[in-house]
Amino acid sequence: MKIFSEMAIRRVLTGIAFSAIAMLILIILFILKEGLPFIFQIGPGNFLLSSDWSPLNGKFGIFAMIVGSLWVTAGALFIGLPLGLAGAIFLAEFLPRWAMRIIKPTIELLAGIPSVVYGFIGVMVLAPIIRDSLGGPGLSIMAASIILGVMILPTILSISIDSIKAVPNSYREGSFALGATHWQTIHMAVLPAAKSGIIAGIILGLGRAIGETMAVIMVVGNAAKIPASVLDSARPLTANIALEMGYATGMHRQALFATGVVLLIIIMMLNFAANTAIKNMVKK
Amino acid sequence: MKLHPRYTQIGAISLLVIATLITLAILVFIIAFVLGRGLLYVNADFLFSNPEDMGRAGGIFPTLIGTIILPLLALLIATPLGVGTSIYLTEYTRESRVTRIIRFGADCLAGIPSIIFGLFGYIFFVTTLKMGWSIISGGLTLAFMILPTLIRTSEEAIKAVPNSYREVSFSLGATRWQTVRKVVLPNALPGIVTGIMLSVGRSIGETAAVIFTAGSSLKLPGSIFDSVRTMSVHFYVLAREGISNENAYATAAVLVISILSINLVSYWIMNRFIASKLK
Predict the structure, then answer these.
(1) Which of B17, B101, B128 sits opposite A21 (nearest CB)?
(2) A150 FRET partner, CA 20 to 30 A, in A86, A124, A228, B99?
(3) How far apart are CA B71 and CA B3, in angstroms?
(4) What average pLDDT score do residues B45-62 get?
């Protein structure tokens, strides 16, 4: 009897263990089912490479949105990467353990603030500053980049700290013994050894920036055209979906799911890349 | 001209300090800004009265209910799955291709953006399963979203239970499940609770996945098949449509305080948990 119930529990747990992968497959299947037929119906070329988006006239080109996503993601990296990496080096290498145990969770609290709150601060504080000092509409790629940059900071920071901490102390001692200064040791011995972990952090940050929706909608301006400069408005892929999902029907709704397919493919590629980078880190 | 290493060191370290200070300043600014502008308008009346005129006046009571009930439902569904998965991964199997696939699946799920969860929840729960915009659609969608966090944190917590505990239990003749239930889980509980708290924090702050699955009705829900509006969605609508900046700030303040206190409590539990394991 006891053995019987043990067997049953093992079966149940094995089943449960596949729930995450089952959910993933379910999500991918349903997004593809809604989006792929549409892409093939109007042709991948017309969908991906045309920048004419006017659903009411049956024009569904998302090139401007792809460009928009690339702009804000690159901008977010431009802001988030230097701050995150520098912060990680400083916290991991120069601060005593007790100080890091206070500051690291504090910075990770940044990750807990809802994206709508970031967006709101972008609208109320950042956009007016950009409009008054640099010109343009204010709600722009630049505003979105700064907000997203701050939002991906905790991801980059926290993973970089972990990978810098994982570098064995013998590396540092060897470098000090050769007469290197602390900074030389960091950029010649520690950072190269921590590289793949840091890269994984950057890729995960990238994924977060590309996938972020609500904060971006609020600050990026959402004009469905190819932006001319960072002070211009843009419409990333995520914004395109969320803005029109509320009222879209028929072809239009399918087009939004097709936008989701493109987003999903980009995210999956980033996940694979991050996974490979983490594996490399473990091997060392 | 090549600078002396000592000078490059001073320069580099100053830059690092500046970058760290900027990061901390941003954090302090965000929290101070939201609380400074919003707390003025928060009082019992605001929390416990119904919104009037689309949220232009009145309080946020129905959204408070929505914010409590959606994460609760999501947890009810996702916690058994998450904890079960982590028990399987740590106690019932060895590292193999199967566990790698399961972990990879969870990692991918964690990387999927919330808008995709929203699209999926809309097409699967709302439309295909005909649940409509409802608490149940929103809760199920959120459950999908928080599952990876629950798996990850429970797994860490279970791994932290020393092997000697299990050996003693086995040597007393306990079966594997008895060992899991009476020895492993009670000792891993604080870590699991931390994961649950973090998931609640994430669910409360979520907007994109919720707005397309639970809808945005401002009425008090009568059953789990009614639509509901969470605080995040309410805040988004107030801010985006420029309905009321005052009420938007106040809602944001309540939102930020709830999430910060949840996260602080979970860090506290986690730290005590780690401290007790190090003894």
Answers:
(1) B101
(2) A228
(3) 57
(4) 87
